[in-house]
Amino acid sequence: MKRLFTLLFLLMGLSLYAVESVRQTNVDGYDRIYYVFTPSSFNANEQYSAMIVLHPLGMSAETFMSRFNPQAISDKNNTVVVFPEALDEQDSEIISAINALKKANALPAGAGTEKVWGAGARISLDDIKEMAGALAPMLSMMYKGIVAAGYAELNKNVDDIKFLNTVISELQQNYSVGNTIYMAGASMGGAMTYRYAYTPNNIVSKIAVISGFVSAGTDTTHALAKPLCVFHSINDEVVNYMGGLFNGPIAQSVQSIATKNGCSSYVSMPIPDTKDDGITIFKAEYTCNQGQEVCFYLADNASHYEILNKNDNDLDYVEEVEKFFFNKQSSDNKDVKQTTITLYPNPATDELYCSAEKGEYEILNLIGQRCMKGELSGGSISISQLKEGEYIFVLQTEEEIIRTHLVVKK
Question: Domain for residue 7, yes or no?
């Protein structure tokens, strides 16, 4: 009978090992948790990759999991899927300041003190004063630490780099995970993904960022040197595409990373519009040094929290991240011909040159308004009348093939 109970216990343990497991670890005195999904065919004698997913500000890892199908991803790609969880804000002064600004309705939607990554997200003192309005004169008395620093940084004293390294180390010890680690993050989870990937000697192979940003507290002086896939909407109401409370212009960040990664140029193409969703998506693929690829999915009319899901849109960011990590062909190229034209220089100032010498072109702003229209003649286009910014260049050739590019006017 004792042997029977022992066998039953072992069988139960094996079956539980293949599904969700909640792990707890202690880092710098903080109890931290992360959720682990292993392939149903898990074999401790095999070596696995790991896909680590970081949730947005204010959202628990468990809630964010519902956007994914972790067990299916784990089984399909024979990988370990992991959802670490951030701590609530630990600095009482930051908590007090955020609560005061929220009470005054001075903070953007989604800002709060729950489930906050130590991602280097900063709000400058000038921005705080502007938001505080009539309360600004009281800042020096109430928030001496913030005033002394010149900014407020969320969970500044929580070492989430160390937490993520601890998670990876424990995965390697307990789940047969090797050195192939993928990391994806959404919103502030995206900021944390960037910060981790910029850390020297990090253990990550590829990264993906959804509606995220490079924080002011992230050291970007050296190259990211990681394959990167970015998803963003020009209508993002939380992480503003043109720059906002926590972030600079998104396209500028992507271009800077691409340049430092050794990417010389990019080709953009529209994603086939098969659903009546009111959203247009462009994918920019950069030509980079081998192993340093950069791709950028730019959408319009998609909200921060409901960006690109397969129920409503032509493209699902979860599926595309999965394909990017595990080198599977993307569905977005069906019936789309790769453009062979190039535009240079890009960014451009007064003149834009196109390798195609004939065709009708339009230059649109990022909300789809036409700014220029004309006929190519000799491949040269004067853009001196355009304001600085980003534009979509659309070319129709004699073969009636629509070719698109993202263009930066400086």
Answer: no
What whole-number distance in Å separates Cα of residue 175 and Cα of residue 195? 25
Distance CA 115, CA 155 (A): 10
151-207 pLDDT per residue, tens: 999 999 999 999 999 999 999 999 999 999 999 999 999 999 999 999 998 999 999
Bond from prior residue into 137 cis (ω within 30 degrees of 0): no
Q: How many domains does the chain have?
A: 3
CATH number of the domain within which 219 lies: 3.40.50.1820
Nearest-angstrom CA–CA distance, 172 and 179: 8
Chain mean position to CA 390: 20
- Are 362 and 353 in contact, with CB atoms under 8 Å apart? no
Please report where in the chains the tokens 């304001």 appear, as a residue.
Answer: 387
C-beta separation of 305 from 311 below 8 A: no
Strand 294-299 relative to strand 228-233, pairing: parallel
Q: Which two tokens stand for residue 285?
A: 């693929």
The whole domain housing 377 covers 343-409
Write out the two tokens for 45: 């004698």
Report the SS3 class of residue 153.
strand
265 and 179 in a common domain: yes
Counting Cβ atoms within 10 Å, is residue 203 exposed (0-12), middle (13-18) or buried (19+)?
middle
Q: Judge whether 58 and 52 are in contact, CB under 8 Å.
A: no
Task: Return d(Cα 310, Cα 271) in angstroms, integer.
Answer: 13
Contact of 49 with 177, CB cutoff 8 Å: yes
pLDDT digits (tens, 9 = 90+) for 204-239: 999 999 999 999 999 999 999 999 999 999 889 999
In degrees rounded to 5, what are phi and psi of residue 71?
A: -65, -40
* Stretch (H or E) spanning 182: strand 177-186
